[in-house]
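Input chain follows. Return structure tokens only.
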Amino acid sequence: MNEQEIDLLDELYFVQSYKDLKSALDWKDEDVQKHLFSLNQKEYIKMLINHDEEYDGIKDFDKIPWKDLYFLATKKGLMEHNGF
């Protein structure tokens, strides 16, 4: 896991909107999206439509409605983040 992925997972212990996540990290959209996509592919995070419903249309990077989604670290992601 690289430094950016660690920083991103630091923010995802609780559900975060894209706007709040981007603001906390102060990264460009393309960097936030690239790392969110990578972490999702590794099953380290969930992409959510709202606080309860998972977003499942993850196949086409360019069609993901990034700014409308929420994000949360998975158990697998938290274990990797904490070195277990």
